[in-house]
Each structure stands twice: as structure tokens, then as C-alpha cells.
Amino acid sequence: MAGKPKLHYSNGRGKMESIRWLLAAAGVEFEEEFIETKEDLEKLRNDGSLLFQQVPMVEIDGMKMVQTRAILSYIAAKYNLYGKDLKERAWIDMYVEGTTDLMGMIMILPLQPADTKEKNLALIIERATNRYFPVYEKALKDHGHDYLVGNKLSWADIHLLEAILMAEECKPGILSAFPLLQAFKERTSNIPTIKKFLQPGSQRKPQMDEKTLAIVKKIF
């Protein structure tokens, strides 16, 4: 029997967090080997574990997978979270790319200079409420289903919930104009595997604080 997937990254959210989310939602137990120093990262590079010298890296099914998108699509397909046909997969991909764009903006916020943070936070809120969330609200309204694609839980739903919770950390109440997304958040948060991941003590990582930021800057 294959062992648990092993995740190699720093002890923080970053690009690995969506991978943690997807594995947890699929009900897959995983191990983490944290990169805590520059030497830890260099060791992985020197022993040939990192195809492009970068993390995240996930050991799964005898592979040392790199590139976040490749890892996520492999996990989604492996655990039946990637639609039933090419068209569904295309819709899942489009929705995921949208939430990835929004989450990317949020992810780099702590790394930005203090004098631009307020302006960038305002931009995140504007984009979330005018560009991204209206798309998902409309999708749920148009087809009347509980999930974004094929009336079945998929990677798109898991990614959207992660993006919603990140956006709410930026501005509580950001979903106030989106009743269907509020209901979606409530519904998906209570899926047993996801509910477990949202509990204190899970492998979900907290928002980046100054201490974590300092460690990340030293490593990378």
C-alpha cells in the first residue's frame, strides 16, 4: 500500500495551502516535512528532489511532484474532484483560475511595503466584489445547484471556499451582497472532511504573521 503523501514546504500557507485543502477535502491523510532553514531548501535542491529547484513539492504515488497547478490537478483527478468529462474539467479549470488570481493578490499582501498595503487591500476588495464573486454567484443562480460544476463537489468548490475565507480575513462581511455564496460557504464548510480541516488543531495554516514572514524571508 502506498504511504501518505508527503508535503515539503515552509510551515505556512503560501502555495502549499490549496494542496492541503484539496487533500483534506478528499479525506486523504498527509504528512508534512517543513523547510525551516535555507539549508533545508538547499538539501532538497542538491539531492535532485526539485525538478525546477522550487517548492511546493509533494511526494505522491512514487513521484516527487512540483508546480502547484500540476500537483493540484493530479490530486483532483485522482480523487474524483475534476468533473466527469472534458467540458466539466474546462469549467472547473476556469473557476479555479479565477480564484487563484484572487488568492494570489491576497497571498502577497503581507509581503508588500506598509505604504502600499492599504491601496492593495482596497484593490483586493474591489476585485473580489466586482470581478470574481459575481461570477460564482451567477453560476449558482443560473443552474440552481449546490455546487459549481455538475452538481457534485469538485476542486472548483473547494478552491472557492478557500478564497472566500481568505477574502473574509481581509474584510469581514465581504459576502454581504452575495446570498447564494453565503449559503454555499455554510454548506461546503459543513462537508465532514472540510469541517474537520476547519477545526483548530488541523493541518490548515493560520494567516501569516510577522514571525512566519521573517522565517519565510530567510529561507527564500
Q: Can you characterise this structure?
A:
The structure is a single chain. The two termini are about 35 Å apart. About 55% of the residues lie in helices and about 5% in strands. The chain contains nine helices and four strands, in the order βαβαββααααααα. The protein has about 220 residues and is an alpha+beta fold. The chain has a four-stranded mixed sheet with strand order 2-1-3-4, with helices on one face.
Strand arrangement in the largest pleated sheet: 2-1-3-4
Overall tally of domains: 2
Helix and strand element order: EHEHEEHHHHHHH
Assign the structural class, choosing from mainly alpha, mainly beta, alpha/beta, alpha+beta, or little secondary structure.
alpha+beta
Q: What separation lies between the terminal Cα atoms? A: 35 Å
> Can you count the beta strands?
4
| Individual helix count | 9
How much β-strand is present in the residues?
5-15%
Mean pLDDT: 95
Q: Which value, in Å, is the CA radius of gyration?
A: 18 Å
CATH architecture of the largest domain: Up-down Bundle
Assign the CATH class of the largest domain.
Answer: Mainly Alpha
Q: Which outline best applies?
A: globular
EC number: 2.5.1.18
Domain GST N-terminal: 3-83
Organism: Cariama cristata (Red-legged seriema)
Enzyme class: transferase
